[in-house]
Amino acid sequence: MDIVLAAILCGLAAVLYGIVTSRSVLGASAGSERMVEIAGAIQEGAKAYLGRQYTTIAIVGVVVAVLVFIFLGLIPAVGFVVGAVLSGVTGFIGMNISVRANVRTAQAANSSLQEGLSLAFKSGAVTGLLVAGLALLAIAGLFYTLVNVSGLAPNDRTVIDGLVALAFGASLISIFARLGGGIFTKAADVGADLVGKVEAGIPEDDPRNPAVIADNVGDNVGDCAGMAADLFETYVVTVGATMVLTALLLGVGLTGGALYALMALPLIIGGVCILTSIVGTFFVRLGKSQNIMGALYKGFIVTAVLSIPALYFATSWALGGEMSAPIGAAQQALEPALGTSAADLEQNFLAATPFTGMDLFWCMLVGLVVTGLIVWITEYYTSTEFRPVKSIAAASVTGHGTNVIQGLAISLEATALPTLVICAGIIVSYMLAGLIGIAFAATAMLALAGMIVALDAYGPVTDNAGGIAEMAELDESVRTKTDALDAVGNTTKAVTKGYAIGSAGLAALVLFGAYTEDLKFFTDQLGLEGPVNFSLSNPYVIVGLLLGALLPYVFGAFGMTAVGRAGGEVVKEVREQFRNDPGIMAGTSRPNYGRTVDLVTKAAIKEMILPSLLPVLAPIVVYFVISWIAGPQEGFAALGALLLGVIVSGLFVALSMTSGGGAWDNAKKYIEDGNHGGKGSEAHKAAVTGDTVGDPYKDTAGPAVNPMIKITNIVAILLLAALAH
Amino acid sequence: MDIVLAAILCGLAAVLYGIVTSRSVLGASAGSERMVEIAGAIQEGAKAYLGRQYTTIAIVGVVVAVLVFIFLGLIPAVGFVVGAVLSGVTGFIGMNISVRANVRTAQAANSSLQEGLSLAFKSGAVTGLLVAGLALLAIAGLFYTLVNVSGLAPNDRTVIDGLVALAFGASLISIFARLGGGIFTKAADVGADLVGKVEAGIPEDDPRNPAVIADNVGDNVGDCAGMAADLFETYVVTVGATMVLTALLLGVGLTGGALYALMALPLIIGGVCILTSIVGTFFVRLGKSQNIMGALYKGFIVTAVLSIPALYFATSWALGGEMSAPIGAAQQALEPALGTSAADLEQNFLAATPFTGMDLFWCMLVGLVVTGLIVWITEYYTSTEFRPVKSIAAASVTGHGTNVIQGLAISLEATALPTLVICAGIIVSYMLAGLIGIAFAATAMLALAGMIVALDAYGPVTDNAGGIAEMAELDESVRTKTDALDAVGNTTKAVTKGYAIGSAGLAALVLFGAYTEDLKFFTDQLGLEGPVNFSLSNPYVIVGLLLGALLPYVFGAFGMTAVGRAGGEVVKEVREQFRNDPGIMAGTSRPNYGRTVDLVTKAAIKEMILPSLLPVLAPIVVYFVISWIAGPQEGFAALGALLLGVIVSGLFVALSMTSGGGAWDNAKKYIEDGNHGGKGSEAHKAAVTGDTVGDPYKDTAGPAVNPMIKITNIVAILLLAALAH
User: Fold this and answer.
1) B645·A649 Cβ contact <8 A
2) With bands split at pLDDT 50, 70 and 90, how would you rate the model's confidence at B647?
């Protein structure tokens, strides 16, 4: 059977799983009339937001699609549209399940913790497997259509441009979804917390708070729809970049069949891991200890362990059983043809020594190990059981200031171990199989996306379930159960973000490799005099690194300001509602939830545009400005350095923000569990401040850095192609 | 007259100015007995701290000096000791003036704002000119002794090693002083604020607060002694690196006399700017508008403008009047001899086209312009008059959380313009005269250090004066005047830090250039197979960049944690004093100030050791680990990339922390001026939290990144020399 077709079947299996499981979720009881009513308000708000967001994105999307068509042709334009539309579809379906699973989870938690967990996790698994499945279908479908149906060579420029454009489509939607959703969710959350918990002294999710529905809508549009689009993008870009790099590096040296097999390998890797992820979902069950994190880990570990043999057999099958025959040998014939001197060649890591299928398999294991370590490290930094979170909680005793200082310290510190793990992953996979090895390690990381997203998407469902339980005045015991589920959700959400940005670290190297290879390929068309000088001794490289490193900072500033500003507006709106109608606080009249949702929707859409365009425009501006000053040779050098500058700085900004934010959140939960005086104590007030600060860190600015890094890289590659055309 | 001797005379002029001016400061009235008593307590605390700190540093210093002697020989060991001792002396004298000027400033402010400003500024000018003067004397003296007295060639290895070791000595002390002082000052400040302003509701500097003396001591050991050591280091490293780079790049090509002149040029640049700085100090006078910042700017602008002709004549004189003859032509003969191919040469920015004296002069102007722009940008971000500070103040109205979020957003944003200025500075000076041009731009920036430090060191004096006025219960009008002086101090302190880190951005490139040139020089001794591959396509370069970028984060985490921890201890100590003796709050019994000073001293010394050693050990560990994995060729590549990674990431960490911290501080002051409800309002409480968070940002972690960057680079250069020996 054809490898790509097999991968497509695996993708369809994921979709099938999604359909069956979502039916099972929707078949559960939605509880009392009051619960249905509340859930209805959340559904309505979410739908309204997503509708308006997608309309805005569609306008940008159509403009960009036309530009892609003009500069690159029809196939890339189609690829762009497919990537963009499927990314949107993933977020849309995931969110629709999520806003229906929330109320059912609250109802199920009424029976038992296990049932609540099951329902919430199933809903997450639908989103997770749709992300992986649709992403795989998009790439495999495009590749199959162009190569097997249209008969193009696997390394034909049209195929390469199509794959890159597909990734661009996914990335562009993703950054809007991540940022828009992130601003919405945190503006609502920050606003609701400040005016409710801090000022009015009413609990979280109190129905008297006019921002409470907006807050619950936010969980879905940010943590579910935004996150789904983000991981869809990460998947498409990583797998796509691995295929493109394979085509560029080995395209001349390998025969058609061997190249096809190697380019199809990332697809089948994704395919078999969808199957292991589906198996893993059935292992998420509470043990005797009732440990929720343990239950989720069981699913993850089963998937990871099963993936090891699955990856071996997939690789062996794709390579025709030849696990120990050298693959990359022929590439050395390629390099001199592109005008590189023999001395350069020796130093050029793209022309690594030949590697075998076995080497690639080891690289995939590196990817799995990196994933496991990042999960473990993130848990250490964000779980209530370890030093970091406890230290923030302890610092809360001495006030707001020390809480924030300690949280910032932890956020800085949390970058260290992941960076060391990523560096080790780079070195080991590079030693095994050169840049191709790094690409396959990253692909194996992303292959687990189905399971990882399932763990994450379960978070907003439980968060909402808690809110609904509170508002529908369900028994206190239900809230206790949903709170327990939610605390774990904070950690799993941080884990996904750490995983996404960690994989971005590897993927960005692959993208940079694709950029440099493309530069070589286009040397003549671009009118270059010779190889571009990417040495650190070139001051334009330094300038590129500095400008690239600046992007995540400016981007972060935009995101934080947006949340601060929109959150402040929510506070004013809620204060006004309280002032105009004293009946709200007395509980005799209903606040106007819709007006608050509407306000946040408008604010989020308005605020997301400018920062989203930053990574799209920056590479273009830097290239043209430096070219104008010092010629295209240095323009391309600065642009290449910009790509690495973004990742070098973005990795740290994103890791520190997502881990720090998760730690702040759980430090508050730790205090609420009765430590340091518990709820209502001065320490708790300080912890609420820390949590508020962490909100835009972990849910707006931090996670959006991941698509930002990728989009910068992809735009640079497209710019090359457009200039060469 | 010999150029170096002339520079030495200028250095002596600075010392003379220091002696005369400090006499004039000390001659002023110290006020009432109560004031003398309070000032005495501050002096005593500062002396005790500095004594203990220097003892600790001395132990580390002796060990390192022995290591330098063993691995590099006698002259470098002497250079190291000179650098270390003079750095310590600068801090010691500066602080001694500062703790005596504080009480006299309070007394002078009793008469008029002008007299207060005059006294405080004079005290700052003593420190400023001693920093520049002693730094210049150290380098010029060492160079003169080795070249003119001992008769070594200016580019003799002994001279180069001596200069690098001198810089190392200054850097090592500086990082301890910056970090130890920074932890002391902010632990005391944060602790005093939290327990005094926030908990007990007593004003800042209330004598009932047992941490109040420690807070005032902290201003001196941190903002004065620490800052003086920092700028001393920056000066020595920048000027020294420019000389070393000149020797390495042009040493073979130029004749002895021409090389001597070019190496002496940075010294005379420093010399003439000391003279213009002295002139500038006499222009710091209030105009009719009573604008304090305007008065300080007058001095700065006079210095900067006078420096333009001074630099021209100094350059012309050093180069024998040959401003338009090409200087660097001969270097092209040098490069091929070191085994570089002609193609590489063409791309190698070290082998720039020949430059003239006029080109160098333009580069110096670039340095002055960069300085001016950074001053202006920093003022924009930290002064109460512009959008950033006002936006933080406005965000305080909605609570602690939104204040901190907005402050973080501003701190991220504040990196953008300085980065663009630095990039422009790099490009323009590189186009004028290659790497040498960047070096001279950096030298010209640092040449203004005398004036810049004067502006900065005035800050702690006024801060203390306010505290003394409060404690000695002087008339309210005195406090108003010292507060006005102090608010400007917050901006000038931020300006100095922005300037220091901005110059570090340029200096680090110079140091990286020295590292790569040294690598070429030592190719045979180090057993290298050829040029090291610093291309971004080399994964070990990526790993080096990532590890380098990690250092400022880990370092920042250490610094923040240290302040949080030590500050928390202060809170506990003060609470205990309040609890054990209710008479303290009633005002009937005196708190035990000494015990708090003692506690902070011990904490600061303990906390400074580990993070200070991080940048010393990191380059060594990275080199040996990567060499062990992939051979010395890649080890040197990763080490080189580490150096650039530190600056690429450190620049942003430092800029964001110092600007953000300054903005938070002044947002509080802005509210205290009566905006958003003024003192005591909810907005004010939120602003106090922001100020507390900003404290370790701007005074501990942020500024210490500057010496950290330099020390990493210098250790790498010394490691090369040690390995080659």
Assistant:
1) no
2) very high
Summarised one tens digit per residue, pLDDT across range A206-247 is: 888 888 888 889 988 888 888 999 999 999 999 999 999 999
CB-based contact A405 B692, cutoff 8 Å? yes
Residue B603 CA, distance from chain mean position: 23
> Which chain B residue's Cα is nearest to A540?
B427
Tell the burial category of A332 from Cβ atoms under 10 Å away from its Cβ (0-12, 13-18, 19+). middle
- The identity of residue B336, as a single letter, is P
Give the residue from A537, A651, A705 with the most B CB atoms within 10 Å of its CB, the best one to mutate.
A537
CA distance A561 to A555: 10
> Tokens at residue A398, please?
């001495």
Q: Which residues of B touch A513 (CB under 8 A)?
A: 537
Q: What integer is the mean pLDDT of A117-144?
A: 95
Could you please report the per-residue DSSP string of A257-286? HHHHHHHHHHHHHHHHHHHHHHHHHTT---
Question: CA of B348 to nearest chain A CA: how many angstroms apart?
Answer: 7
Distance from CA of B134 to the nearest CA of A (A): 32
- Note the residue count of chain A: 725
Do B530 and A343 count as a contact with CB atoms less than 8 A apart? yes
Model pTM greater than 0.80? yes
Nearest CA among A324, A385, A378 for reference residue A667? A385
Q: Which residues of B378-415 are buried (b: 16+ CB within 10 A; e: fewer)?
A: bbbbbbbeeebbbbbbbbbbbbbbbbbbbbbbbbbbbb
Question: Exposed (0-12), middle (13-18) or buried (19+): which is A189, by Cβ within 10 Å?
Answer: buried
Q: How far is A707 from chain B (nearest CA, A)?
A: 19
Q: Which residues pair with A535 in a beta bridge?
A: B535
* pLDDT tens-digit map of A444-481: 999 999 999 998 888 889 988 988 988 888 888 888 88
Query: Are residues A121 and A24 in contact, defined by beta-carbon separation less than 8 angstroms?
Result: no
Burial tier of B74 (Cβ tally within 10 Å: 0-12, 13-18, 19+): exposed
Give which of B73, B132, B656, B351 is closest to A538, Cα–Cα. B351
Chain segment B16-69, per-residue pLDDT in tens: 999 999 999 999 988 888 899 889 889 988 888 888 889 989 999 999 999 999
Mean of the pLDDT values across residues A359-382?
A: 94
What is the number of alpha carbons within 13 Å of residue A237 lying toward its C-beta? Answer: 38
Type of residue numbered B587: G
B678: left (phi over 0), alpha (psi -120 to 50) or beta: left
Return the structure tokens found at B715: 């250790």
- A404, A539, A656: residue with CB nearest B553: A656
Q: What is the pLDDT of residues B586-604, one digit of tens each?
A: 888 888 888 888 899 989 9
Q: What is the rounded distance in angstroms from the CA atom of residue A641 to the CA atom of residue B550? A: 18
Q: Minimal CA–CA distance to B65: which of B209, B197, B179, B168? A: B168
Cβ contacts of A413 on chain B, cutoff 8 Å: 553-554, 557, 561
Q: What residues of B are in contact with residue A193 (Cβ under 8 Å)? A: 401
B546 vs A348: CB contact, 8 Å cut-off?
A: no
Cα→Cα distances B500→A215, A374, B463, Å: 44, 36, 22
Q: What is the DSSP letter of B199?
A: I
Alpha-carbon Rg for chain B in angstroms: 25
| Cβ-contact B173, B229 below 8 angstroms | yes
Residues 6+ apart with CB under 8 A from A690: A392, A396, A400, A403, A404, A407, A664, A667, A668
Span B600-617, average pLDDT = 90
Cβ separation of A564 and B402 shorter than 8 Å? Answer: yes
